[in-house]
Design a protein that fits this description.
Radius of gyration: 24 Å
Largest sheet: 3 strands, mixed
CATH topology of the domain at 6-190: Butyryl-CoA Dehydrogenase, subunit A, domain 3
Number of strands: 5
CATH class of the domain at 6-190: Mainly Alpha
CATH architecture of the domain at 6-190: Up-down Bundle
CATH superfamily of the domain at 6-190: Oligopeptidase f, N-terminal domain
Helix content: 55-70%
Strand content: under 5%
Structural class: mainly alpha
Length: about 625
Protein backbone atom coordinates (compact mmCIF):
# COMPACT_ATOMS: atom_id res chain seq x y z
CA UNK A 1 0.00 0.00 0.00
CA UNK A 2 3.06 2.21 -0.25
CA UNK A 3 2.60 5.56 -1.94
CA UNK A 4 6.18 5.48 -3.18
CA UNK A 5 5.59 2.57 -5.56
CA UNK A 6 2.06 3.35 -6.72
CA UNK A 7 3.39 4.45 -10.09
CA UNK A 8 4.20 0.80 -10.76
CA UNK A 9 0.53 -0.15 -10.74
CA UNK A 10 -1.05 2.83 -12.48
CA UNK A 11 -1.43 2.23 -16.15
CA UNK A 12 1.87 2.96 -17.97
CA UNK A 13 2.86 3.89 -21.85
CA UNK A 14 3.14 2.33 -26.01
CA UNK A 15 3.49 2.95 -29.64
CA UNK A 16 6.27 4.92 -31.16
CA UNK A 17 6.38 8.69 -31.13
CA UNK A 18 6.30 8.24 -34.90
CA UNK A 19 2.67 7.08 -34.62
CA UNK A 20 1.65 10.31 -32.95
CA UNK A 21 3.57 12.55 -35.33
CA UNK A 22 2.64 10.95 -38.62
CA UNK A 23 -1.05 11.31 -37.76
CA UNK A 24 -0.62 14.63 -36.02
CA UNK A 25 -4.04 15.84 -37.16
CA UNK A 26 -7.31 14.08 -37.93
CA UNK A 27 -9.60 15.90 -40.35
CA UNK A 28 -13.37 16.02 -40.08
CA UNK A 29 -15.45 17.88 -42.70
CA UNK A 30 -17.52 19.61 -40.01
CA UNK A 31 -15.25 19.75 -37.00
CA UNK A 32 -12.04 20.73 -38.79
CA UNK A 33 -8.58 19.53 -37.92
CA UNK A 34 -8.50 17.67 -34.62
CA UNK A 35 -5.17 17.49 -32.77
CA UNK A 36 -3.33 14.33 -31.76
CA UNK A 37 -0.71 14.03 -29.03
CA UNK A 38 2.95 14.86 -29.57
CA UNK A 39 4.97 12.87 -27.03
CA UNK A 40 8.35 14.51 -27.51
CA UNK A 41 8.19 16.07 -24.03
CA UNK A 42 8.32 12.53 -22.69
CA UNK A 43 10.50 10.76 -25.24
CA UNK A 44 12.18 11.62 -28.52
CA UNK A 45 13.45 9.16 -31.10
CA UNK A 46 14.69 6.48 -30.81
CA UNK A 47 11.96 5.78 -28.26
CA UNK A 48 12.72 2.17 -27.40
CA UNK A 49 16.37 2.92 -26.72
CA UNK A 50 15.50 5.90 -24.52
CA UNK A 51 12.96 3.91 -22.50
CA UNK A 52 15.40 1.04 -22.06
CA UNK A 53 18.09 3.44 -20.86
CA UNK A 54 15.70 4.89 -18.29
CA UNK A 55 14.70 1.42 -17.12
CA UNK A 56 18.37 0.47 -16.67
CA UNK A 57 19.05 3.68 -14.76
CA UNK A 58 16.03 3.14 -12.50
CA UNK A 59 16.92 -0.50 -11.81
CA UNK A 60 20.41 0.46 -10.67
CA UNK A 61 19.11 3.46 -8.71
CA UNK A 62 16.56 1.30 -6.87
CA UNK A 63 19.22 -1.26 -5.92
CA UNK A 64 21.60 1.45 -4.72
CA UNK A 65 18.75 3.07 -2.79
CA UNK A 66 17.96 -0.17 -0.95
CA UNK A 67 21.64 -0.84 -0.18
CA UNK A 68 22.09 2.66 1.22
CA UNK A 69 18.94 3.06 3.29
CA UNK A 70 17.31 -0.26 4.19
CA UNK A 71 17.45 -0.85 7.97
CA UNK A 72 19.37 2.42 8.42
CA UNK A 73 16.67 5.12 8.52
CA UNK A 74 16.06 5.11 12.26
CA UNK A 75 19.64 6.26 12.90
CA UNK A 76 19.71 9.05 10.32
CA UNK A 77 19.41 12.80 10.66
CA UNK A 78 16.58 14.87 9.23
CA UNK A 79 18.75 16.06 6.33
CA UNK A 80 19.77 12.48 5.50
CA UNK A 81 16.13 11.34 5.45
CA UNK A 82 15.24 14.30 3.22
CA UNK A 83 18.03 13.26 0.84
CA UNK A 84 16.60 9.73 0.77
CA UNK A 85 13.14 11.06 -0.08
CA UNK A 86 14.63 13.19 -2.86
CA UNK A 87 16.34 10.11 -4.30
CA UNK A 88 13.09 8.16 -4.17
CA UNK A 89 11.35 11.08 -5.86
CA UNK A 90 13.89 11.03 -8.70
CA UNK A 91 13.30 7.31 -9.26
CA UNK A 92 9.55 7.94 -9.17
CA UNK A 93 9.92 10.63 -11.83
CA UNK A 94 11.87 8.33 -14.13
CA UNK A 95 9.36 5.51 -13.86
CA UNK A 96 6.45 7.92 -14.06
CA UNK A 97 7.84 9.18 -17.35
CA UNK A 98 8.00 5.66 -18.76
CA UNK A 99 4.61 4.75 -17.33
CA UNK A 100 2.91 7.86 -18.68
CA UNK A 101 4.26 7.35 -22.18
CA UNK A 102 3.31 3.69 -22.37
CA UNK A 103 -0.18 4.22 -20.93
CA UNK A 104 -1.04 7.23 -23.10
CA UNK A 105 -0.02 5.46 -26.29
CA UNK A 106 -2.06 2.46 -25.20
CA UNK A 107 -5.09 4.73 -24.61
CA UNK A 108 -4.80 5.97 -28.19
CA UNK A 109 -5.34 2.44 -29.54
CA UNK A 110 -6.46 0.03 -26.83
CA UNK A 111 -7.17 -2.70 -29.37
CA UNK A 112 -3.55 -2.83 -30.61
CA UNK A 113 -1.96 -6.08 -29.28
CA UNK A 114 1.57 -4.63 -29.47
CA UNK A 115 0.63 -1.67 -27.29
CA UNK A 116 -1.20 -3.89 -24.84
CA UNK A 117 1.85 -6.16 -24.58
CA UNK A 118 4.18 -3.26 -23.92
CA UNK A 119 1.78 -1.99 -21.28
CA UNK A 120 1.72 -5.34 -19.48
CA UNK A 121 5.48 -5.89 -19.80
CA UNK A 122 6.22 -2.38 -18.51
CA UNK A 123 3.93 -2.78 -15.52
CA UNK A 124 5.57 -6.08 -14.62
CA UNK A 125 9.06 -4.67 -14.98
CA UNK A 126 8.17 -1.66 -12.81
CA UNK A 127 6.80 -3.92 -10.11
CA UNK A 128 9.99 -5.99 -10.12
CA UNK A 129 12.21 -2.92 -10.22
CA UNK A 130 10.55 -1.15 -7.28
CA UNK A 131 10.27 -4.24 -5.06
CA UNK A 132 13.58 -3.41 -3.27
CA UNK A 133 12.12 -0.02 -2.31
CA UNK A 134 9.00 -1.26 -0.54
CA UNK A 135 10.86 -1.08 2.77
CA UNK A 136 11.15 2.72 2.65
CA UNK A 137 7.71 3.83 3.78
CA UNK A 138 7.43 0.86 6.11
CA UNK A 139 10.55 2.01 7.96
CA UNK A 140 9.45 5.65 7.95
CA UNK A 141 6.33 4.51 9.78
CA UNK A 142 8.42 2.87 12.49
CA UNK A 143 9.50 6.29 13.79
CA UNK A 144 7.73 7.40 16.95
CA UNK A 145 5.73 10.57 16.37
CA UNK A 146 7.86 12.70 18.69
CA UNK A 147 11.12 11.50 17.15
CA UNK A 148 10.03 12.25 13.60
CA UNK A 149 8.63 15.65 14.58
CA UNK A 150 11.98 16.52 16.14
CA UNK A 151 13.81 15.58 12.95
CA UNK A 152 11.41 17.69 10.89
CA UNK A 153 11.92 20.64 13.23
CA UNK A 154 15.69 20.50 12.85
CA UNK A 155 15.80 20.03 9.06
CA UNK A 156 14.48 22.61 6.59
CA UNK A 157 14.96 20.04 3.82
CA UNK A 158 12.72 17.53 5.61
CA UNK A 159 10.11 20.19 6.40
CA UNK A 160 9.45 20.47 2.68
CA UNK A 161 8.28 16.86 2.63
CA UNK A 162 6.12 17.05 5.76
CA UNK A 163 2.78 16.91 3.83
CA UNK A 164 3.98 13.75 2.06
CA UNK A 165 5.19 12.26 5.34
CA UNK A 166 1.78 13.02 6.87
CA UNK A 167 0.14 10.99 4.08
CA UNK A 168 2.58 8.12 4.61
CA UNK A 169 2.02 8.21 8.37
CA UNK A 170 -1.76 8.17 7.90
CA UNK A 171 -1.32 4.65 6.51
CA UNK A 172 0.34 3.38 9.70
CA UNK A 173 -2.78 1.77 11.24
CA UNK A 174 -3.36 -0.12 7.98
CA UNK A 175 0.19 -1.23 7.29
CA UNK A 176 0.96 -4.95 7.10
CA UNK A 177 4.19 -6.83 7.76
CA UNK A 178 7.15 -6.18 5.50
CA UNK A 179 6.78 -9.61 3.90
CA UNK A 180 3.09 -9.15 3.15
CA UNK A 181 3.61 -5.65 1.76
CA UNK A 182 6.33 -6.96 -0.57
CA UNK A 183 4.12 -9.86 -1.65
CA UNK A 184 1.19 -7.57 -2.42
CA UNK A 185 3.49 -5.27 -4.37
CA UNK A 186 4.79 -8.13 -6.52
CA UNK A 187 1.32 -9.63 -6.95
CA UNK A 188 -0.31 -6.36 -8.04
CA UNK A 189 0.50 -6.84 -11.73
CA UNK A 190 -1.60 -10.01 -11.94
CA UNK A 191 -4.23 -8.81 -9.48
CA UNK A 192 -6.48 -5.77 -9.79
CA UNK A 193 -4.29 -4.25 -12.49
CA UNK A 194 -4.86 -7.23 -14.78
CA UNK A 195 -8.64 -7.13 -14.22
CA UNK A 196 -8.64 -3.41 -15.00
CA UNK A 197 -6.87 -4.11 -18.25
CA UNK A 198 -9.34 -6.86 -19.13
CA UNK A 199 -12.18 -4.38 -18.62
CA UNK A 200 -10.47 -1.72 -20.77
CA UNK A 201 -9.64 -4.16 -23.56
CA UNK A 202 -13.19 -5.52 -23.58
CA UNK A 203 -14.78 -2.08 -23.64
CA UNK A 204 -12.56 -0.87 -26.46
CA UNK A 205 -13.39 -3.94 -28.55
CA UNK A 206 -17.18 -3.63 -28.19
CA UNK A 207 -18.97 -3.15 -31.49
CA UNK A 208 -22.51 -1.78 -31.83
CA UNK A 209 -24.49 -2.41 -35.00
CA UNK A 210 -26.98 0.44 -34.66
CA UNK A 211 -29.78 0.25 -37.26
CA UNK A 212 -29.58 3.17 -39.66
CA UNK A 213 -25.89 3.88 -39.02
CA UNK A 214 -23.08 3.21 -41.47
CA UNK A 215 -21.18 0.21 -40.13
CA UNK A 216 -20.59 -0.77 -36.51
CA UNK A 217 -19.87 1.98 -33.97
CA UNK A 218 -17.67 2.01 -30.89
CA UNK A 219 -19.02 2.71 -27.41
CA UNK A 220 -18.28 6.44 -27.48
CA UNK A 221 -20.10 7.08 -30.74
CA UNK A 222 -23.05 4.91 -29.71
CA UNK A 223 -23.44 6.73 -26.39
CA UNK A 224 -23.26 9.99 -28.33
CA UNK A 225 -26.40 8.99 -30.23
CA UNK A 226 -28.33 9.16 -26.95
CA UNK A 227 -28.19 12.95 -27.26
CA UNK A 228 -29.25 13.05 -30.93
CA UNK A 229 -32.22 15.24 -31.89
CA UNK A 230 -33.98 12.27 -33.56
CA UNK A 231 -35.87 10.31 -30.89
CA UNK A 232 -36.09 7.18 -33.03
CA UNK A 233 -32.32 7.24 -33.49
CA UNK A 234 -31.81 7.64 -29.75
CA UNK A 235 -34.10 4.70 -29.02
CA UNK A 236 -32.37 2.26 -31.36
CA UNK A 237 -29.00 3.33 -29.94
CA UNK A 238 -30.19 2.64 -26.40
CA UNK A 239 -31.64 -0.72 -27.41
CA UNK A 240 -28.40 -1.64 -29.19
CA UNK A 241 -26.38 -0.72 -26.09
CA UNK A 242 -28.65 -2.90 -23.97
CA UNK A 243 -28.32 -5.82 -26.40
CA UNK A 244 -24.51 -5.74 -26.39
CA UNK A 245 -24.28 -5.18 -22.63
CA UNK A 246 -26.56 -8.16 -22.05
CA UNK A 247 -24.29 -10.30 -24.22
CA UNK A 248 -21.25 -9.29 -22.12
CA UNK A 249 -22.87 -8.91 -18.71
CA UNK A 250 -21.50 -12.25 -17.51
CA UNK A 251 -17.92 -11.09 -18.02
CA UNK A 252 -18.57 -7.70 -16.40
CA UNK A 253 -20.25 -9.46 -13.48
CA UNK A 254 -17.17 -11.64 -13.01
CA UNK A 255 -14.83 -8.62 -13.15
CA UNK A 256 -16.97 -6.71 -10.64
CA UNK A 257 -17.25 -9.64 -8.23
CA UNK A 258 -13.52 -10.35 -8.40
CA UNK A 259 -12.45 -6.77 -7.79
CA UNK A 260 -15.00 -6.25 -5.01
CA UNK A 261 -13.79 -9.41 -3.26
CA UNK A 262 -10.17 -8.41 -3.77
CA UNK A 263 -10.95 -5.07 -2.13
CA UNK A 264 -12.81 -6.76 0.74
CA UNK A 265 -9.83 -9.01 1.47
CA UNK A 266 -7.38 -6.11 1.43
CA UNK A 267 -9.67 -3.92 3.53
CA UNK A 268 -10.06 -6.70 6.09
CA UNK A 269 -6.34 -7.34 6.38
CA UNK A 270 -5.63 -3.62 6.59
CA UNK A 271 -8.34 -3.06 9.19
CA UNK A 272 -10.46 -0.61 7.21
CA UNK A 273 -13.88 -0.49 8.81
CA UNK A 274 -15.92 0.18 5.66
CA UNK A 275 -15.37 -0.29 1.90
CA UNK A 276 -15.23 3.50 1.55
CA UNK A 277 -12.63 4.09 4.29
CA UNK A 278 -9.51 3.65 2.14
CA UNK A 279 -10.82 6.13 -0.42
CA UNK A 280 -11.56 8.70 2.28
CA UNK A 281 -8.04 8.24 3.67
CA UNK A 282 -6.48 8.69 0.23
CA UNK A 283 -8.65 11.77 -0.37
CA UNK A 284 -7.69 13.30 2.99
CA UNK A 285 -11.34 13.82 3.83
CA UNK A 286 -13.36 12.76 6.83
CA UNK A 287 -16.01 10.11 6.25
CA UNK A 288 -18.51 12.32 8.06
CA UNK A 289 -18.00 15.09 5.47
CA UNK A 290 -18.67 12.68 2.60
CA UNK A 291 -21.72 11.29 4.37
CA UNK A 292 -23.05 14.82 4.86
CA UNK A 293 -22.60 15.46 1.14
CA UNK A 294 -24.32 12.21 0.22
CA UNK A 295 -27.25 12.82 2.57
CA UNK A 296 -27.72 16.41 1.38
CA UNK A 297 -27.83 15.34 -2.27
CA UNK A 298 -30.21 12.43 -1.66
CA UNK A 299 -32.53 14.70 0.32
CA UNK A 300 -32.49 17.12 -2.62
CA UNK A 301 -33.46 14.53 -5.26
CA UNK A 302 -37.16 15.64 -5.26
CA UNK A 303 -36.22 19.34 -5.53
CA UNK A 304 -33.62 18.83 -8.26
CA UNK A 305 -33.65 15.75 -10.50
CA UNK A 306 -37.27 14.69 -9.92
CA UNK A 307 -38.52 18.21 -10.56
CA UNK A 308 -36.30 18.83 -13.57
CA UNK A 309 -37.09 15.56 -15.34
CA UNK A 310 -40.83 16.16 -14.87
CA UNK A 311 -40.37 19.53 -16.56
CA UNK A 312 -38.35 18.01 -19.38
CA UNK A 313 -40.98 15.34 -20.03
CA UNK A 314 -43.58 18.10 -20.37
CA UNK A 315 -41.35 20.10 -22.74
CA UNK A 316 -40.93 17.02 -24.93
CA UNK A 317 -44.65 16.19 -24.87
CA UNK A 318 -44.07 12.88 -23.04
CA UNK A 319 -45.75 11.27 -20.05
CA UNK A 320 -42.46 9.66 -19.04
CA UNK A 321 -38.81 10.05 -19.99
CA UNK A 322 -37.14 6.87 -21.22
CA UNK A 323 -33.39 6.20 -20.99
CA UNK A 324 -32.95 7.60 -24.50
CA UNK A 325 -34.66 10.88 -23.49
CA UNK A 326 -32.69 11.78 -20.36
CA UNK A 327 -29.88 13.58 -22.21
CA UNK A 328 -31.86 14.45 -25.35
CA UNK A 329 -31.74 18.01 -26.65
CA UNK A 330 -34.83 20.13 -26.11
CA UNK A 331 -37.20 20.54 -29.09
CA UNK A 332 -35.94 24.09 -29.77
CA UNK A 333 -32.30 23.27 -29.11
CA UNK A 334 -29.62 24.18 -31.62
CA UNK A 335 -28.03 20.80 -32.30
CA UNK A 336 -25.36 22.04 -34.71
CA UNK A 337 -21.90 20.54 -34.49
CA UNK A 338 -19.33 22.97 -33.14
CA UNK A 339 -16.04 23.10 -35.03
CA UNK A 340 -12.87 22.50 -33.04
CA UNK A 341 -11.57 26.02 -33.71
CA UNK A 342 -14.79 27.51 -32.33
CA UNK A 343 -14.67 25.26 -29.29
CA UNK A 344 -11.14 26.45 -28.60
CA UNK A 345 -12.18 30.11 -28.93
CA UNK A 346 -15.15 29.64 -26.58
CA UNK A 347 -13.12 28.01 -23.83
CA UNK A 348 -10.03 30.20 -24.15
CA UNK A 349 -12.13 33.37 -24.14
CA UNK A 350 -13.91 32.24 -20.98
CA UNK A 351 -10.60 31.43 -19.31
CA UNK A 352 -9.03 34.70 -20.42
CA UNK A 353 -11.95 36.82 -19.20
CA UNK A 354 -11.51 35.32 -15.74
CA UNK A 355 -7.74 35.78 -15.73
CA UNK A 356 -5.28 36.15 -18.63
CA UNK A 357 -2.92 33.90 -16.69
CA UNK A 358 -5.39 31.04 -16.97
CA UNK A 359 -5.58 31.31 -20.76
CA UNK A 360 -1.80 31.65 -20.95
CA UNK A 361 -1.33 28.35 -19.10
CA UNK A 362 -3.96 26.66 -21.30
CA UNK A 363 -2.56 27.86 -24.65
CA UNK A 364 0.17 25.19 -25.08
CA UNK A 365 -2.41 22.41 -24.82
CA UNK A 366 -3.74 23.55 -28.20
CA UNK A 367 -0.50 24.68 -29.82
CA UNK A 368 1.97 21.99 -28.77
CA UNK A 369 0.15 18.68 -29.12
CA UNK A 370 -0.99 18.30 -25.52
CA UNK A 371 -4.56 17.29 -26.56
CA UNK A 372 -5.73 14.16 -28.38
CA UNK A 373 -9.21 15.01 -29.65
CA UNK A 374 -10.68 12.71 -32.36
CA UNK A 375 -13.05 9.83 -31.51
CA UNK A 376 -11.28 7.15 -33.56
CA UNK A 377 -11.86 3.41 -33.53
CA UNK A 378 -9.98 1.55 -30.82
CA UNK A 379 -9.33 4.65 -28.73
CA UNK A 380 -10.13 4.60 -25.02
CA UNK A 381 -13.60 6.00 -24.35
CA UNK A 382 -14.39 9.07 -22.28
CA UNK A 383 -11.99 11.89 -21.45
CA UNK A 384 -9.22 12.56 -18.96
CA UNK A 385 -6.27 14.80 -18.11
CA UNK A 386 -3.12 12.87 -17.27
CA UNK A 387 -0.54 14.82 -15.21
CA UNK A 388 2.37 12.56 -16.37
CA UNK A 389 5.47 13.86 -14.53
CA UNK A 390 6.30 17.31 -13.26
CA UNK A 391 9.35 17.56 -15.55
CA UNK A 392 7.09 17.25 -18.63
CA UNK A 393 3.47 18.43 -18.91
CA UNK A 394 -0.09 17.07 -18.69
CA UNK A 395 -1.86 15.41 -21.62
CA UNK A 396 -5.61 15.79 -22.23
CA UNK A 397 -7.63 13.08 -23.97
CA UNK A 398 -11.04 13.77 -25.50
CA UNK A 399 -13.44 12.02 -27.85
CA UNK A 400 -14.61 15.25 -29.48
CA UNK A 401 -17.80 14.97 -31.55
CA UNK A 402 -18.85 18.62 -31.69
CA UNK A 403 -21.75 18.71 -29.22
CA UNK A 404 -22.12 21.50 -26.70
CA UNK A 405 -21.36 18.92 -24.01
CA UNK A 406 -18.07 18.17 -25.78
CA UNK A 407 -17.16 21.85 -25.50
CA UNK A 408 -17.92 21.69 -21.78
CA UNK A 409 -15.82 18.52 -21.53
CA UNK A 410 -12.95 20.39 -23.16
CA UNK A 411 -13.37 23.17 -20.58
CA UNK A 412 -13.46 20.55 -17.81
CA UNK A 413 -10.36 18.60 -18.83
CA UNK A 414 -8.44 21.76 -19.67
CA UNK A 415 -9.19 22.96 -16.13
CA UNK A 416 -7.56 19.77 -14.85
CA UNK A 417 -4.59 20.47 -17.10
CA UNK A 418 -4.15 24.04 -15.80
CA UNK A 419 -4.38 22.71 -12.24
CA UNK A 420 -1.77 20.04 -12.96
CA UNK A 421 0.63 22.56 -14.51
CA UNK A 422 0.38 24.84 -11.47
CA UNK A 423 0.65 22.02 -8.92
CA UNK A 424 3.60 20.51 -10.80
CA UNK A 425 5.88 23.07 -9.18
CA UNK A 426 5.58 21.09 -5.94
CA UNK A 427 7.50 18.12 -7.36
CA UNK A 428 6.52 14.49 -7.84
CA UNK A 429 5.48 13.64 -4.29
CA UNK A 430 3.65 16.86 -3.43
CA UNK A 431 1.93 17.76 -6.70
CA UNK A 432 -0.91 15.22 -6.58
CA UNK A 433 -4.09 16.91 -5.39
CA UNK A 434 -6.55 14.88 -3.27
CA UNK A 435 -9.65 13.88 -5.22
CA UNK A 436 -11.80 16.10 -3.04
CA UNK A 437 -10.06 19.10 -4.61
CA UNK A 438 -8.92 17.55 -7.90
CA UNK A 439 -12.23 18.47 -9.57
CA UNK A 440 -12.10 22.11 -8.44
CA UNK A 441 -10.34 23.64 -11.44
CA UNK A 442 -12.16 21.41 -13.92
CA UNK A 443 -15.66 22.25 -12.70
CA UNK A 444 -14.68 25.92 -12.26
CA UNK A 445 -13.51 25.95 -15.89
CA UNK A 446 -16.87 24.51 -16.95
CA UNK A 447 -18.72 27.19 -15.00
CA UNK A 448 -16.67 29.98 -16.57
CA UNK A 449 -17.41 28.60 -20.03
CA UNK A 450 -21.12 28.18 -19.34
CA UNK A 451 -21.48 31.69 -17.93
CA UNK A 452 -19.81 33.12 -21.02
CA UNK A 453 -22.11 31.23 -23.37
CA UNK A 454 -25.17 32.23 -21.36
CA UNK A 455 -24.22 35.92 -21.28
CA UNK A 456 -23.73 35.95 -25.06
CA UNK A 457 -27.09 34.30 -25.85
CA UNK A 458 -30.03 36.67 -26.43
CA UNK A 459 -32.59 34.32 -28.03
CA UNK A 460 -35.00 33.23 -25.23
CA UNK A 461 -35.46 29.67 -26.52
CA UNK A 462 -31.75 29.11 -27.06
CA UNK A 463 -31.04 30.60 -23.65
CA UNK A 464 -33.54 28.18 -22.14
CA UNK A 465 -31.89 25.25 -23.93
CA UNK A 466 -28.45 26.36 -22.77
CA UNK A 467 -29.62 26.69 -19.17
CA UNK A 468 -31.32 23.29 -19.36
CA UNK A 469 -28.11 21.69 -20.63
CA UNK A 470 -26.19 23.15 -17.71
CA UNK A 471 -28.77 21.85 -15.25
CA UNK A 472 -28.51 18.42 -16.85
CA UNK A 473 -24.73 18.51 -16.63
CA UNK A 474 -24.93 19.46 -12.96
CA UNK A 475 -27.46 16.71 -12.30
CA UNK A 476 -25.10 14.28 -14.02
CA UNK A 477 -22.23 15.57 -11.92
CA UNK A 478 -24.00 15.65 -8.57
CA UNK A 479 -27.14 13.49 -8.53
CA UNK A 480 -25.91 10.81 -10.91
CA UNK A 481 -22.51 10.49 -9.22
CA UNK A 482 -24.05 10.19 -5.75
CA UNK A 483 -26.38 7.53 -7.16
CA UNK A 484 -23.24 5.80 -8.47
CA UNK A 485 -21.73 6.11 -4.98
CA UNK A 486 -24.81 4.47 -3.47
CA UNK A 487 -24.64 1.72 -6.10
CA UNK A 488 -21.04 0.97 -5.19
CA UNK A 489 -21.78 1.14 -1.47
CA UNK A 490 -24.60 -1.37 -1.77
CA UNK A 491 -22.67 -3.66 -4.13
CA UNK A 492 -19.58 -3.81 -1.92
CA UNK A 493 -21.69 -4.36 1.18
CA UNK A 494 -23.61 -7.18 -0.52
CA UNK A 495 -20.42 -8.74 -1.91
CA UNK A 496 -19.23 -9.31 1.65
CA UNK A 497 -22.12 -11.72 2.03
CA UNK A 498 -21.30 -13.67 -1.15
CA UNK A 499 -20.91 -13.48 -4.91
CA UNK A 500 -23.48 -11.40 -6.77
CA UNK A 501 -25.31 -12.50 -9.89
CA UNK A 502 -25.88 -10.22 -12.87
CA UNK A 503 -29.55 -10.08 -11.84
CA UNK A 504 -28.65 -8.90 -8.33
CA UNK A 505 -26.33 -6.21 -9.69
CA UNK A 506 -29.12 -5.14 -12.04
CA UNK A 507 -31.56 -4.90 -9.14
CA UNK A 508 -29.23 -2.62 -7.20
CA UNK A 509 -28.70 -0.48 -10.31
CA UNK A 510 -32.43 -0.14 -10.96
CA UNK A 511 -33.08 0.76 -7.32
CA UNK A 512 -30.59 3.65 -7.20
CA UNK A 513 -31.66 4.86 -10.65
CA UNK A 514 -35.30 4.90 -9.59
CA UNK A 515 -34.49 6.81 -6.41
CA UNK A 516 -32.34 9.42 -8.14
CA UNK A 517 -34.27 9.95 -11.39
CA UNK A 518 -37.74 9.98 -9.88
CA UNK A 519 -41.28 9.21 -11.05
CA UNK A 520 -40.92 11.01 -14.39
CA UNK A 521 -38.44 8.37 -15.56
CA UNK A 522 -39.35 4.93 -16.89
CA UNK A 523 -36.72 2.29 -17.60
CA UNK A 524 -36.52 -0.04 -20.59
CA UNK A 525 -35.82 -3.77 -20.90
CA UNK A 526 -32.06 -4.19 -20.62
CA UNK A 527 -31.47 -0.95 -18.72
CA UNK A 528 -30.55 -3.07 -15.71
CA UNK A 529 -27.19 -3.79 -17.42
CA UNK A 530 -26.13 -0.17 -17.88
CA UNK A 531 -23.98 -0.29 -14.74
CA UNK A 532 -21.43 -2.38 -16.56
CA UNK A 533 -19.83 0.34 -18.72
CA UNK A 534 -18.97 2.78 -15.89
CA UNK A 535 -15.15 2.62 -15.68
CA UNK A 536 -14.84 4.27 -12.26
CA UNK A 537 -16.46 1.24 -10.61
CA UNK A 538 -13.56 -0.84 -11.92
CA UNK A 539 -10.56 1.47 -11.81
CA UNK A 540 -11.23 3.63 -8.75
CA UNK A 541 -13.87 2.35 -6.31
CA UNK A 542 -15.77 5.24 -4.68
CA UNK A 543 -13.98 7.84 -6.83
CA UNK A 544 -17.35 9.12 -8.02
CA UNK A 545 -18.26 11.23 -4.99
CA UNK A 546 -15.31 13.49 -5.88
CA UNK A 547 -17.37 14.86 -8.79
CA UNK A 548 -20.26 15.81 -6.53
CA UNK A 549 -17.80 17.15 -3.95
CA UNK A 550 -16.11 19.26 -6.63
CA UNK A 551 -19.38 20.57 -8.08
CA UNK A 552 -20.72 21.60 -4.68
CA UNK A 553 -17.41 23.17 -3.76
CA UNK A 554 -17.17 25.10 -7.03
CA UNK A 555 -20.76 26.32 -6.82
CA UNK A 556 -19.92 27.81 -3.43
CA UNK A 557 -16.54 29.09 -4.67
CA UNK A 558 -18.06 30.65 -7.79
CA UNK A 559 -20.67 32.33 -5.60
CA UNK A 560 -17.87 33.98 -3.64
CA UNK A 561 -16.25 35.06 -6.92
CA UNK A 562 -19.47 36.61 -8.28
CA UNK A 563 -20.19 38.37 -4.98
CA UNK A 564 -16.75 39.96 -5.05
CA UNK A 565 -16.57 39.42 -1.31
CA UNK A 566 -12.99 38.11 -1.27
CA UNK A 567 -10.17 40.49 -2.13
CA UNK A 568 -7.71 39.30 -4.80
CA UNK A 569 -9.86 36.26 -5.58
CA UNK A 570 -7.94 35.33 -8.73
CA UNK A 571 -4.56 35.36 -6.98
CA UNK A 572 -5.91 33.24 -4.12
CA UNK A 573 -7.50 30.85 -6.61
CA UNK A 574 -4.18 30.25 -8.36
CA UNK A 575 -2.46 29.83 -5.00
CA UNK A 576 -4.99 27.14 -4.11
CA UNK A 577 -4.34 25.25 -7.35
CA UNK A 578 -0.56 25.62 -7.04
CA UNK A 579 -0.65 24.07 -3.55
CA UNK A 580 -1.13 20.62 -5.06
CA UNK A 581 -1.10 18.07 -2.26
CA UNK A 582 0.60 20.25 0.33
CA UNK A 583 -2.62 21.28 2.10
CA UNK A 584 -5.99 19.76 2.97
CA UNK A 585 -9.38 21.04 1.85
CA UNK A 586 -10.04 22.92 5.09
CA UNK A 587 -6.80 24.92 4.77
CA UNK A 588 -7.25 25.63 1.08
CA UNK A 589 -10.84 26.85 1.37
CA UNK A 590 -10.24 29.05 4.43
CA UNK A 591 -9.06 32.13 2.43
CA UNK A 592 -12.45 32.10 0.67
CA UNK A 593 -14.44 31.86 3.89
CA UNK A 594 -15.64 28.34 3.03
CA UNK A 595 -15.65 25.16 5.12
CA UNK A 596 -16.73 21.84 3.61
CA UNK A 597 -17.14 20.32 7.08
CA UNK A 598 -19.99 22.75 7.79
CA UNK A 599 -23.28 20.86 7.14
CA UNK A 600 -24.75 24.01 5.59
CA UNK A 601 -21.94 24.14 3.01
CA UNK A 602 -23.49 21.54 0.71
CA UNK A 603 -26.86 23.26 0.85
CA UNK A 604 -25.27 26.35 -0.74
CA UNK A 605 -24.03 24.36 -3.71
CA UNK A 606 -27.32 22.54 -4.21
CA UNK A 607 -29.18 25.85 -3.99
CA UNK A 608 -27.34 26.99 -7.14
CA UNK A 609 -28.84 24.09 -9.10
CA UNK A 610 -32.28 24.70 -7.59
CA UNK A 611 -32.03 28.36 -8.57
CA UNK A 612 -31.39 27.45 -12.20
CA UNK A 613 -34.39 25.11 -12.18
CA UNK A 614 -36.46 27.95 -10.69
CA UNK A 615 -35.37 30.13 -13.61
CA UNK A 616 -36.42 27.46 -16.09
CA UNK A 617 -39.82 27.15 -14.41
CA UNK A 618 -40.24 30.93 -14.60
CA UNK A 619 -39.63 30.81 -18.35
CA UNK A 620 -42.64 28.49 -18.67
CA UNK A 621 -44.87 30.72 -16.57
Amino acid sequence: MTRLTQFASFSPATSLVRDARETAQDDDPTLGRLPRWDFTALYAEPVDEAIEADFVWAEQAAKTFAERYESNLLGMSGDQIAAAIAEAEAISEKLGRIGSFVYLNYAQQVTDPARAKRLGDSQARMADLTAPMVFFELELNRFEDDALEALIAESAALQKYKPWLDLVRADRPHQLSDELEKFLHDQSVVGATAWNRLFDDTMAALSFDVPGEDGPLNLEKTLNLLSDADRAKRQVAAETLAKVFQEKVGLFTLITNTLAKDKEIRDRWRNFQTPQSSRHLANQVEGEVVQALRDAVVAAYPRISHRYYAMKAKWMGLDKLRPWDRNAPLPDDDDRRIAWSEAKDIVMSAYGEFAPKMAEIAEPFFDKGWIDAPAVEGKSSGAFAHPTVTTAHPFVMLNYLGKTRDVMTLAHELGHGVHQVLAGRQGEFLSRTPLTLAETASVFGEMLTFKRLLAAETDPQKRKALLAKKVEDMINTVVRQIAFYDFESRVHAARREGELTAEQLGEVWMAVQGESLGPAFEAMPGYETFWCYIPHFIHSPFYVYAYAFGDGLVNALYGVYEEGSVAEFEAKYFEMLAAGGTQKHKELLAPFGLDASDPAFWGKGLAVIEGMIDELEAMDA
